[in-house]
Amino acid sequence: MLKDIAGLTKEELDKISKKVALTKNDEVVLLPDDWIEENGIRYLKKPLKVHHILWSYYTLDGGFLVSKVYDPEFQYVYAFSATKESTKALEKLYCDEVLKKKGYYYYQGLRSEELCAID
């Protein structure tokens, strides 16, 4: 389901990515039509270009797969977990070296404990 993206540049990712919609409160807005869900993992139909802090908040206590292409402000997201169980499954899936070789990196969203420490 996840294509090989190892050779894509930042410019190429910008062209194929969907810049995610934000509400007036800077909250991430996604619709069920934006992904295909399998075992609680939501595989995005088009990668999302998202601000890493807002996305980490959106995926609170979850995990997500991004492109290894570095950008200091944005991430290019390809999949994310929807439940605690799928977070573990996504992390396990990433531990298989195949996704690393295909150009993906696994991140965890903010943890509830971290968010409480910020307040």
Provide an overview of this structure.
The longest helix is centred in the last third of the chain and has 12 residues. This protein has five helices and eight strands, in the order αβββββαββααβα. The chain has 119 residues and is α+β, with helices and mostly antiparallel strands. The N and C termini lie far apart (38 Å). Strands 1, 4, 5, 6, 7 and 8 form a six-stranded mixed beta sheet that branches. It has a two-stranded antiparallel sheet with strand order 2-3. The relative contact order is 0.21. Helices cover 32% and strands 33% of the residues.
Strand content: 25-35%
Q: Note poorly predicted spans.
A: none
Distance between the termini: 38 Å
Quaternary state of this entry equals: single chain
Mean pLDDT: 86
- The shape, in one word, is globular
Question: How much is the radius of gyration in Å?
Answer: 14 Å
**Alpha-beta classification:** alpha+beta
Task: Count every beta strand, where a strand is a DSSP E run of 2 or more residues.
Answer: 8
The helicity comes to 25-40%
**Element-level helix/strand string:** HEEEEEHEEHHEH
Largest sheet: 6 strands, mixed
Instruction: Figure out the total of helices.
Output: 5
